[in-house]
Design a protein that fits this description.
This protein is an alpha+beta fold. It contains four helices and four strands; from the N terminus they run ααβαββαβ.
């Protein structure tokens, strides 16, 4: 074992202290800068999400089949009934075209009768709870 001289006994801890004195793990002050439009977009998204209610509305299914036929059916439907929303849902193995977001069954049945005049095999889809 090597024995340190008295000058090295003092010098070594003093050097270690001097080196470690200026070491900082992390700065605790964090500055966050974001685009002001971000808050506006976030509030718009919150408004949209609260207005969308998918589970408590009646819908009408007007088609079930292949993808291309579903796209054609939805396109034709939107031309004929431009006030009613429609979408395509994939449910293995078929694509389904469902339309409307009717809050009451009566409203859905009224629209169902009108849609039946233009499409066959149309039926009401109850809300899932």
């Amino acid at each position: 074992m090597r024995i340190l001289t008295p000058s090295k006994k003092i010098l070594l801890p003093l050097a270690a202290f001097a080196i470690s004195y200026n070491i900082h793990a992390q700065d605790q002050n964090i500055t966050l800068s974001q685009d002001p439009k971000f808050e506006q977009l976030l509030s718009n998204k919150r408004k949209i999400n609260t207005s969308i209610s998918t589970n408590d509305t009646y819908k009408i299914q007007i088609f079930s089949g292949k993808s291309e036929d579903a796209k054609k059916t939805l396109s034709n439907f939107k031309r004929e009934f431009n006030t009613i929303d429609g979408t395509i849902i994939f449910n293995t193995p078929n694509y389904k075209v469902v339309v409307g977001n009717f809050k009451t069954r009566i409203e859905a049945e009224r629209n169902l009768e009108e849609i039946k005049k233009h499409y066959k095999n149309v039926f009401l889809v109850k809300p899932s709870k």
